[in-house]
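Pasting as-is:
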Amino acid sequence: MKRDVPHILLINPWIHDFAAYDFWAKPLGLLTLAALLRSHGLSVSYIDCLDRFHPQAPSSDSTARWGRGPYLKTPIPKPHGLEDVQRRFCRYGIKPRWLAKDLGQMPVPDLILVTSLMTYWYGGVQETIAMLRDIFPQTTIILGGIYASLCSEHARKNAGADDIVAGAADEAVFDIVARHTGLRVTARFDPQNLDTYPYPAFDLQSCVNYVPLLTSRGCPFKCAYCASHFLSPIRLWRSPESVIEEIKFWKQTHQIRDFVLYDDAFLVNAQQHALPLLEKIVRADLGLRFHTPNAVHIRSLKAETAQLLFDAGFKTLRLGLETAEFERREDIDRKVTQKDFKQAARYLKTAGFTGDQVGAYLLMGLPGQELSTVERSIQTVQAAEIKPIIAYYSPIPHTALWPAALKTSRYDLAADPIFTNNSIMPCQSESFNWETVSALKELASGSYPQ
């Protein structure tokens, strides 16, 4: 029976990996699409295969560590080519029988939209789409997201979807709906004006225990290891008024205290964007906590900015340092100097931040990188009385470091995104050595001078 209003099912797929954890990870793009569709009169459903709060899942504390927590995991066979990795490989997320039951209890959707995140997680995408195909054989399945954008040809050939969408789907989604359901609607938002977007449909989740915020899109830097500029080439900002109203909305409707900034460049042009917003947050005095897992730019951390971040309630502040080898960082980025870093650390400590609240990301596993440079970087960060956080490098297509990664990796990265998994340190020339990694992690977790 043909419906007057098409019903769209949106799916966040499983993760297949050696390790995964909910460090404030939500499919913001997919939930934004759900909100756009719903605000234009379409019927939507959402299933999160990573749902930590699924009705059949073991009880999970929604208040644990500011909303973060472990995914349910099930051991599965390792992918071909990674059998020698001495770590357990798992499906992260709900049990397949739970998903099958949930899908079987809903009406047949007119269209299914599946997102994708890390390129090397495509195994979870394949498994999810295969189950969708089995239960809804006549429904068109469209794949979008990061994997579909960065590895379009691989996704087209291997994911199992009927079609893929590369890049942001905000503008394309209504054409997709029209093409596959026959319903054409006129968009009532401006893709170049983030203030015209509805709030993402976080209410579709089983539990809303933290809320990601996107106050801007894009990044002016073109760091050699990062695909942000490729994925979001246009820099856009929301007005501070729009952001503070969204914060108040989620606080009032869902009693949210933890807000997570997904911006890639929150502090860039701080005088025009971040500082006015921070001032509004301080004046509102809502008793909230803010977190920056995507890192902020160190050069923008002036004394005034550091104090406003502290006064606004930022509890988890991450700095995009990447390496403390300042004389030899030109191959990866030019966004911070040794003076910038030391000055920012001093401003943050003076503002009231503790070393446990502030962490500096350090990349490990870069093409040609000697692990001794990581050790020296850890010691430099600790000397500044903040916490070093090791971030394992993943080779990403369409970045400046991709050709070097292809040359140095012991795997055929171009043949299969599975080999770009950061857990296996793919650009080390020798086999994966977990003991070396563990030693550096132990060093990073050690105390710093007080």
